[in-house]
Design a protein that fits this description.
Nuclear Transport Factor 2, Chain: A; about 130 residues; globular; six-stranded mixed sheet
Length: about 130
């Protein structure tokens, strides 16, 4: 597979991941991760495997909804790995109070080419500009 084709497939995988977040689809969030994948939370020590990501997402989506978009800045393909730098903009909305909070963050993904497509192998982000409306 050439690097342009691989990069397009990586973008499609991240688009599906974005849709899963925007539709509160915890199964699709889980499926976006490699079985060996890890999410590195920005404010909690340690790493979360896909099972914990899905559990925490389920808890999160019980009280909130999310609208997020990723602006991919670069994709580097090296063998079976893709390294992705992005800027995300998100809005978190409380289902109970209607309070909306918007955020911008720097995101870093490592995806791995696996059977079934490119899967998130590592994901971390750093919130840069929290805003409350």
């Amino acid at each position: 597979m050439n690097k342009n084709t691989a990069a397009a497939e990586v973008e499609m995988s991240l688009k599906k991941f974005t849709e899963s977040l925007n539709t509160s689809d915890t199964k699709a969030i889980y499926d976006a991760y490699s079985t060996e994948g890890q999410y590195i939370p920005p404010t909690i020590s340690g790493v979360w495997p896909p099972e914990v990501v899905a559990e925490r997402a389920d808890l999160f989506f019980r009280s909130k909804t999310m609208v997020i978009s990723f602006d991919i800045k670069s994709i580097t393909i090296e063998n079976v790995f893709a390294f992705v730098n992005a800027i995300s903009k998100s809005e978190i909305i409380s289902k109970f109070s209607g309070v909306r909070k918007t955020f911008e963050s720097k995101d870093f993904f490592v995806l791995r080419d696996e059977v079934g497509g490119w899967k998130i192998f590592r994901y971390m982000f750093e919130t840069r500009i929290p805003k409350t409306e």
